Amino acid sequence: MALAPFAASAADTLASPWAQGAKSRARLVAAGGLDDGVYKVGVEITLSRNALTYWRSPGDAGVPPVFAFGGSANLADAKVLYPAPGRYIEGGGAAFGYRDRVVFPVEVRPADPSRPVSVKLDLNYAVCENICIPAEASMRISLRPDAPRSAEAADIEAFRQKVPQPIAMTVTPRFHLWGVRDAAKPTWRVKLANPPAAGADLFAEGPDGWYFDTARSGDLTFDIILAEKPKTSALPLDGVVLTINEGDRAYEATTRLDAPAPKP
Questions:
Q1: Cα–Cα distance between 246 and 67 in angstroms, integer?
Q2: Same domain, yes or no, for 43 and 153?
Q3: What is the residue range of 186's domain?
Q4: Which of 38, 56, 220, 256 could form a disulfide with 107 if both were Cys (CB 3.0 to 4.6 A apart)?
């Protein structure tokens, strides 16, 4: 399906021109002026029908997006946030990402808050529709402290609400985790404290070289299966990030995976 052409207007003063990519296009948008010391910016990608682009952990195939802000002026930091992904079956494997459209929120912190910021972004991402195609876009946007709220502000905020909220398991446990004994591969079961939505999903990310498959195993439970690990590494493993997407809300927790105990 052909992408609709972009029509510029006065309301788009806080949006960069569209950069056309493979089966996609991308642009930078901003919510307005400084808000609690940061500019709320978004990297918007729209996709042709049936195409998808990827989350920071793409699944069995695909490439995560890469955001490079070199060449920006008066920029102290740019923190990219990732909305919770969907799970899609592509070529027999599971891909984690977004269809149709996504906005990656970015928190831009100026080096000198009294001066404007020139944000330059070189974006590399992949678009998959039967085959995966690399795409790239170079974009630039100017931000000023006193800029009014833009037409894109509500959209950026809507995608910020899709970013998983960190939870501290020591305060209010949202799930319980234990090892599954004598599974074919090291497996852990996650039981949620509250009934999830029908389409809820769980994703597990490990440190470099550690990869996990996940699958729903019951009304309240998901399984985490160790798919690959570094040859010189062994369980237990700290720093595993679990992301639970319940559609209207998402949250994430960092946890430890102990070696599942065999049956006595």
A1: 27
A2: yes
A3: 166-257
A4: 38
